[in-house]
Amino acid sequence: MTMSLVNATIAGLNATTSYSSVLEEVAKYNVHLNWAERLWAAWYLWMQNDVLATGIMAFVMHEIVYFGRSLPWIIIDSIPYFNKYKLQNQKLPTWKEQWDCTVLVLLSHCTVELPQIWLFHPIATYFGMDYGVPFPKLSTMALQITVFFILEDAWHYWFHRALHYGPLYKNIHKLHHTYSAPFGLAAEYASPIEAMLLGFGIVGIPIVWVSVIGDLHLLTMFTWIVLRLFQAIDAHSGYDFPWSLRHILPVWAGADHHDLHHEKFIGNYASSFRWWDYCLDTEAGEEANKKRREKKLAAMRAKKAQ
């Protein structure tokens, strides 16, 4: 928060206590800010505790986005018309499965993720994250979020692949594979260790970024997390529509990519893109197996011909 904004606004606050009163003061003394920036600045000034302000905003945002984005998939699962787009249409989630999943995910959010959310602000600001106004340019946000998607995908690929190693799978990752036909709510259905390990790619990479580059705004961080939540939930939805992003952007993983991972329990380890699995020959499914067999046969024929 810029000092001129803080000083000018606090000077006009006097004994005001309501958020709307603070917002009025912010608007009065900071006409150069847009409405979103005024709402943001007023929130931090009204709270008078930056750690608490960021923590509440982050937790509420996470819950609204996670369950709000999962809700359409719950509705779609209950409408027979959409069954033709279901990748494993013989395995529709029951209401009990969805309820059990919701309870565990909520428990995880409150016991595992909430403390991390509370620690995020002091750690991120220590390394240089900005949370003031005005907001960064959209072009800057887009560039940084693109980098985060690419770096997180690499992190996710290697650690997810490691979690399929015998003891690690049995003691950590097996819980996430409870459902061989995933559904939206199951995106964060995982053990605490897995949530922290793979979650570092989402939260830790931006912190490393700002510590090295020195440029990151909390709004960019929130936008990145929202988009990554959308990606994770959609990847677990179990539906592949003709208008799904992977049909527009061929390198995008999509639901078909991750659904095969849950069905076959091996391969397709990346989160957002297909290139790691393609380049390292860890693609799952019959088509990929067929290509591997053909490649082996071709190599054997070439060897015999020598």
Automatic annotation (TrEMBL):
Keywords: Membrane, Transmembrane, Transmembrane helix. The chain crosses the membrane at residues 197-227. The keyword Electron transport does not apply. Signal peptide: none annotated. GO terms for molecular function: iron ion binding; oxidoreductase activity. Pfam families: FA_hydroxylase. One of its GO terms (cellular component) is membrane. Residues 146-282 form the Fatty acid hydroxylase domain. This is C-4 sterol methyl oxidase. It comes from Immersiella caudata.
